[in-house]
Amino acid sequence: MTDIILHLSSGGGPAECRWVVARLARAFVREARDCDILCEPLEPIGDDPASLLLRVSGTGADAFVDDRSGTILWTGQSPFRPAHKRKNWFVGVSRVETTDDAGDLRETDIDYQAMRASGPGGQHINKTDSAVRATHRPTGLVAVSQEQRSQHANRKVARLKLALLLAERAETAEGEARRAAWDRNQGLERGNAVRTYSGTDFHLKKR
User: Fold this and answer.
1) Of 68-77, 86-95, 127-136, 153-162, minimum mean pLDDT range
2) Mean pLDDT on 170-196
3) Are 164 and 186 members of one domain?
4) Residues 78 and 158 grouped into a single domain
5) Number of structural domains, the chain?
6) In whole angstroms, what separates CA 85 from the centre of its chain?
7) Percent of the chain at pLDDT above 70?
């Protein structure tokens, strides 16, 4: 069974979009459970993450991911600015390629450092050096993973995060406005949402 990695991104949008990312991740986990599909975050969800990675697996995972890939719209009052007139907030969802040939990312350019996991989590937290910090020497970019149970798994996730960071860096350098692996706000297709949620309970609107 192949795991599918989903990337949820606020696209560099305001705090409201980051707030939507966190609630959307929880909505996806809930929806997957109802479909007997495993969907779990690869990192802490938090309150307002700029982006999140989710692992999806099980029978029907491909269809589940396809139905949610693209621009997601949440309609509602800003939780931070009650007087704000804007009611539509957009985030991007995309499948992440997990192959080893991730563009300019070469294994020989990465330094891995084991570290002790910290913060809320399972029983392994603060008891083993399972967390991993990955540093891309040519650029100085750093990614950390500590949510997985083994150092090997955290190493894979940290490398995946580095690949996404490099993709973002490359898109920025090239000045491209299209949506890339790491979605930017101007790349989100506002008029073409694949799913629309509303309210603080993230109720899915029927088309």
Assistant:
1) 127-136
2) 61
3) no
4) no
5) 2
6) 28
7) 80
Q: What digits encode the pLDDT tens for the residues 13-72?
A: 899 999 999 999 999 999 999 999 999 998 888 888 888 999 999 999 999 999 999 999
Q: What is the CATH number of the domain that holds 153?
A: 3.30.160.20
For residues 194 and 91, the answer to whether their CB atoms sit within 8 Å is: no
What is the CATH classification number for the domain harbouring 89?
A: 3.30.70.1660
pTM tops 0.85: no
Whether the Cβ atoms of residue 13 and residue 91 lie closer than 8 Å to each other: yes
Residue 59 domain-assigned (yes or no)? yes
Q: Encode 6-25: b = buried (16+ Cβ within 10 Å), e = exposed.
A: bbbbbbbbbebbbbbbbbbb
The answer to whether residues 9 and 80 belong to one domain is yes
Residue 41's nearest CA partner among 72, 7, 89 is: 7
Both tokens assigned to 117? 């996991």
21 shares a domain with 36: yes
Backbone angles phi, psi at 55, to 5 degrees: -105, 130
Give kind and range of the element (H or E) at residue 28: helix 15-34
Under DSSP, the state recorded for 102 is -
Structure token digits, residue 133: 């910090």
Using DSSP bridges, classify how beta strands 131-136 and 70-75 pair: parallel, antiparallel or unpaired: unpaired
Considering the domain architecture, whether residues 12 and 29 belong to the same structural domain is answered as yes
